[in-house]
Every structure is written in structure tokens, then in C-alpha cells.
What does this fold into?
Amino acid sequence: MSVVNAFALSLSLSADSFAASLGRDAGAGRARLLRAARTGLVFAVFETAALSAGWGLGEVASGIFRALDHWVALALLTAIGGRMIREGVRAAPRGEVSRPRPFRLAATALATSIDACAVGASLALAGGSYLVSAVTLAAVTFAMTLAGSFLGRRLGAAAGQRAEIAGGLVLIAVGVNIAVTHSLGV
It folds into this structure.
């Protein structure tokens, strides 16, 4: 997998984290660097752990699906992307500001990282680079969550919805790219 594809996937997967941190801090007072960095770190760890778990499952299943791997990757990425788009369209902006609680933060990070597990399996089946994908995802998720925390106060939750829709579209595009390049033997 190229660094460009890994970056595009990471942006897509971190759109949930961006939206969550944006909504979490929407309407809040001045953003605090320590709180934003802690939030970014938690989201980055959960995203990378989910990607790793999915990657492991994909490696185990790769022998079974070798002839169909690119189609499985396309189906999974399209399903995840479609869900992200649907959630971005359906979600109503929330004006409430939640108090930071460790359990709530971890639960939110877990909920936003589930799709990374399926993407990890898809990438393993498609023969992508684990190290490039994991490092890129961790860095991009941290940066996107940090940005969401600081922008939340100004932009509100509506921007998070748009980020989720854009992330879904990018996941679908990456799935199509995997299917086309593997079908053509590129």
C-alpha cells in the first residue's frame, strides 16, 4: 500500500474521532492542550489497536480468501464507508458539552475505532503494509482529534457530520482502488 493510500485511509478512519472530539468540545470554553492531547492519544491507541486486531484476523483468513481478497476488501470498505455517510447525514448537531470522564472517553474511542478493525482485515487480505498503515493511522488520528478538540468550540458538531461523510466517501474510493488495481494486476 502506498503512503498516499495509507494517508487517505487514515483520514477516513480518523473522521469519526475528529467528529467525536469536535462534538465533545462544541460550544466549550477555551480548549485545553492537555485535555486535547489526552483525547488524541486515547483515540489514536484505540484506532491502532483495532486496526491491528483486524489485521491479525485478515492474515489468518488470507489463505482462504486469496482469490477473492480484493472483492472482500471492496465490500468491507464500501459497507463501512456507507455507514459513515449514513451516520453523517442522519446525525443531528448536538449543542451539549460533555464533561470529560475517562470511561466515556474510552467508550467513545472504542465506538469510533470498530471500523478500523474491518479495514485492518481488508488491508491484510489485500496485501497492504501493516507498519505504514498503523503508524500513519496513529499519527493522523492523534492530529485529527487534537484539531477537532480545538475547532469544536468554533465550528460545532455540524462540521463533524461533514467530516464523517467525507471519510465515508474516501473509504469507498480506497476500496474501489484496491479492487481495480488487484483485478488489473497493477
